[in-house]
Amino acid sequence: MTSRDNQSISVVWFKRDLRLQDHHALHAAWESNNPVLPVYLFEPAIMADSHYSNRHWRFVWQSLLDMEQQLRPLNASFHVSYDDALPFFKRLHQHYQRITLYSYEEVGLACTFERDKQLKAWCKSVGVEWKEFPYAGVIRGLTHRKQWLANWRKQMCSAPVSTPIHKINWETNKTLVTRVPATISAELHRPDEHMQLGGETQAHQTLVSFIDDRHRSYHTQISSPLKSMRSCSRLSPYLAWGNLSVRQVYQAITAVKSPLPRSLQAFISRLHWHCHFIQKFESECEQEFRPVNAAYQRFPYRADEQATQQFKAWCEGNTGIPMVDACMRSVIKTGYLNFRMRAMLVSFLTHYLLIDWRRGALHLAQQFLDFEPGIHYPQFQMQAGVTGTNTLRVYNPVKQAQDNDPSGEFIRKWVPEIAHLDIEDLFAPWQIPPLTQLTLDSPLPPRYVNPVAIPEDIIPPHRDLLWKWRERDDVRKEARRVLHRHSNPG
Ligand SMILES: Cc1cc2nc3c(=O)[nH]c(=O)nc-3n(C[C@H](O)[C@H](O)[C@H](O)COP(=O)(O)OP(=O)(O)OC[C@H]3O[C@@H](n4cnc5c(N)ncnc54)[C@H](O)[C@@H]3O)c2cc1C
Prior knowledge:
By secondary structure, this protein is α/β, with parallel strands linked by helices. The chain has 25 helices and 5 strands. It has 3 domains: 5-163, Rossmann fold, CATH 3.40.50; 199-283, Serine Threonine Protein Phosphatase 5, Tetratricopeptide repeat (Alpha Horseshoe), CATH 1.25.40; 288-486, DNA Cyclobutane Dipyrimidine Photolyase, subunit A, domain 3 (Orthogonal Bundle), CATH 1.10.579.10. A 5-stranded parallel β-sheet has the order 3-2-1-4-5, with helices on both faces. Helix 1 links the parallel strand 1 (5-14) and strand 2 (36-41). It starts with a strand and ends with a helix. Residues 232-236, 239-240, 267, 270-271, 273-274, 277, 338-339, 342-343, 346, 368, 370-372, 375-376, 379-380, 383 line the site of flavin-adenine dinucleotide (FAD). Its cofactor is FAD; (6R)-5,10-methylene-5,6,7,8-tetrahydrofolate.
């Protein structure tokens, strides 16, 4: 056992708040006047959770490199350790006599919730004070929404905290860290040109380019899978991993001009949704495992062998429905998909194939670079129609293609094996008569002749089932409870 430094220390534990500005935990640590030790933990137990994939940890890695670059001129560095939280902080506790731990409250998955509970119990048992700060107007332990909106607005309008990082007395103690294994760090270090680059610097550049130029077509191109890549803000990974605070974005946008143009008003409502959904998850985190409307627990999803094969086809972008396949292949490669196309993928899985939303939620969590449990789960359930409170929206992928990819450019890009088809055949190739198929330049791949489900055929019985369930007494009763618990008055 190492002898303890006779020293008080403030430890800032960075989680999904990978920035140095508008950071309450860092600011409070600086105000403590103690040396400040900045820590990020690549936690093997969390990394093993099946929601995550390397793309997330690569983004984190890039964000840490960015912060490291900001700290280097100050002769400070980040303490990046490959450790689960409890053993790491126990080790830390052997070195320092008095530790105060600073972090944000994490609105996370069961794995991080359990880890935090264990850590909290240990902190209490050894006298380590853990100061946690709320996330973007999200209130822990909230039972109703009466004051929620007013509080959110107040948070968004209050001044961001500005921490003079050059004045911080940074602590360095490399003996505490366990190096990330070379096989993992090599993988995380490898750039992926198709994904957005992580880091505070890149986040600010993305925000500025949206404000200066890209926002102009935001509300008209928001649902186009191709054009939204540019016209949407693309801020989601930066918000999900905390390279920007929601408040920084809110204030940068509202400072543009008054009144805000329509495109930016539409954007601001989404920032509100961001926090509204995270609050829903904070208030009822069981949504990771069960429908928020508990009556849907017994909904008769298909779980036979054919459903398993269809699920695999959905995951791989091989369903034979061009728009579904293009969206899935695109998100696998780029980590991004706009809102409407995410909703359509969920609708196809749950309404057309009648496969349990939970199976799809895990798969898409791994693909979305912006995976944020507090948005992902409530949105997934809403689109799957298991809340009992929202209108049931069944998205026909053929109509979505006609409306949002009218030239077929997006489908041709991601499903090259049918790129030779004329536009009138591209969205529903199974309708091409067999004799005409023989005249095509290259034969139609079998899956586009016999897709896993033909939208027109399969939907009526499933739609009836979904609507019938909405009318059930137990679903309605639960819907009233859900509304009472999670909606803002007015
Ligand atoms: C099934 C499903 C799962 C989703 N999972 C996630 C997720 O894990 N992480 C995530 O950030 N978003 C998720 N969304 C919401 C939305 O699709 C993305 O936030 C958006 O597409 C990100 O692109 P953008 O930053 O360019 O969005 P913009 O349209 O520019 O919006 C700006 C910001 O507002 C927030 N936002 C936008 N739309 C929504 C919405 N409908 N609900 C809540 N917040 C919103 C996001 O933080 C986004 O970055 C999900 C939507 C669906 C239907």
